[in-house]
Amino acid sequence: MVSKKIAVLPGDGIGPEVCRQAVKVLEAVAGRFGHRFDMQSYLMGACAIDATGNPLPDETLDACRAADAVLLGAIGDPKYDHDPTAKVRPEQGLLRLRKSLGLFANIRPVTAYSVLLEHSPLKRERIEGTDLLIFRELTGGIYFGDKGRTADGEAAYDHCTYSRPEIERIAHLAFRAAAGRRQKLTLVDKANVLETSRLWREVVREMAAEYPEVAVDYLFVDNAAMQVILSPTQFDVILTENMFGDIISDEASVIAGSLGLLPSASVGERVALFEPIHGSYPQAKGKGIANPIATILSAAMLLEHLELDAEAALVREAVDEALHNGVLTKELNPTAPYTTEEVGNYIAFWIADSNEKQWNKNNVEIGLSTII
Ligand SMILES: NC(=O)C1=CN([C@@H]2O[C@H](COP(=O)(O)OP(=O)(O)OC[C@H]3O[C@@H](n4cnc5c(N)ncnc54)[C@H](O)[C@@H]3O)[C@@H](O)[C@H]2O)C=CC1
Ligand SMILES: CC(C)CC(=O)C(=O)O
Ligand SMILES: [Mg+2]
């Protein structure tokens, strides 16, 4: 029996809906294994601005610092996206949280699930067997550099800066991950144009000597954007800076079949944070169409981080079961879609009672009454 404190930041848009499913799954895990997960929710993003004027209230940051792990839904709201003059924005809360917690590495696994190959717009023979890991630098680069306007407001700038230590600390994690996988690391950069990219290349090339078992190659990001969907099986570990990793990983979600399937772990100095790679998908808010699996798989990564491997494996098994049985939201199952809640219930029920496997769409409320 373990007792863990998990700070939950549901956020905005579909964030609360998908987070609720992941919390339910963690409750099912706790029930099944006799653990205690203390899961309290805190404000971050547009909801926090509305309530306090601050996208990352002190109470939220303090709770994250005091937690064993953090689970995040997503933040962002069209009222800020469509107002270029807004002084306070939901995204500032997320960026400040990442920086304050020292979460310098965002790890985004991309898998082509064989049962979903038919849902991908990409050709089966190109994507089958894809299993890659993106290491995206998360607290530096252009998202964090000085930004602003010139005095007349007619020009704007966003500075991109990287230091050697910032590159080294994430590169070590990526090299170690590659060493334990298929021993290949691809640095994605724009070293033909950007000085920051030339520093990345220099540092990674030097570090490669420490990891002789890992084959390193280098790709310009424009080429990588093409290669990642043309022949994704060539990749094992991709290491890249903040903005390139943000873009390449959303693109890579097409391989899995939906942005709603890709989880992530953000790790760094102490407490780690787990979140789907997607945003707050405001068009879907309250409609029950958001896929909760990315957040549920983020919860599985959270369990692995807490060294609860059997628990995480059971969550993955339950997700596989949902995939195999077509218990999927409408972007993956347009003819007989399940709601966000039903997908979450199915997975939680399977974890709580996987010996019975009695679940069906109609008995779910009865079956789950014991665990939710
Ligand atoms: N980590 C975070 O909290 C992030 C927040 N954002 C914010 O989210 C808001 C919306 O941004 P968008 O560019 O529209 O990106 P988004 O990721 O919210 O949605 C893009 C598209 O992906 C699909 N999608 C996303 N999540 C899905 C899910 N769970 N199930 C099924 N389909 C899903 C939908 O087709 C959607 O139109 C903005 O305010 C943005 O700043 C964007 C990315 C990350
Ligand atoms: C909303 C941004 C701050 C970041 C983003 O798109 C992401 O982390 O995937
Ligand atoms: Mg993104």
UniProtKB/TrEMBL annotation:
Sites where the protein binds substrate: 98, 108, 136, 222
Site residues (Important for catalysis), renumbered to this chain: 143, 190
Keyword Amino-acid biosynthesis: yes
SMART domains assigned: Iso_dh
PROSITE patterns: IDH_IMDH
UniProt keyword terms in alphabetical order: Amino-acid biosynthesis, Branched-chain amino acid biosynthesis, Cytoplasm, Leucine biosynthesis, Magnesium, Manganese, Metal-binding, NAD, Oxidoreductase
Cofactor note: Binds 1 Mg(2+) or Mn(2+) ion per subunit.
Pfam family membership, one: Iso_dh
Molecular-function annotations in GO: 3-isopropylmalate dehydrogenase activity
Subcellular location: Cytoplasm
Reaction equation(s) it catalyzes: (2R,3S)-3-isopropylmalate + NAD(+) = 4-methyl-2-oxopentanoate + CO2 + NADH
Enzyme class: oxidoreductase
Domain Isopropylmalate dehydrogenase-like: 5-347
Biological pathway: Amino-acid biosynthesis; L-leucine biosynthesis; L-leucine from 3-methyl-2-oxobutanoate: step 3/4
List of residues binding Mg(2+): 222, 246, 250
Principal location listed in the UniProt entry: cytoplasm
SUBUNIT field: Homodimer.
PANTHER family: 3-ISOPROPYLMALATE DEHYDROGENASE (PTHR42979)
Family according to the record: Belongs to the isocitrate and isopropylmalate dehydrogenases family. LeuB type 1 subfamily.
Record function comment: Catalyzes the oxidation of 3-carboxy-2-hydroxy-4-methylpentanoate (3-isopropylmalate) to 3-carboxy-4-methyl-2-oxopentanoate. The product decarboxylates to 4-methyl-2 oxopentanoate.
Protein name as annotated: 3-isopropylmalate dehydrogenase
Source organism of the structure: Hymenobacter armeniacus
Gene label: leuB
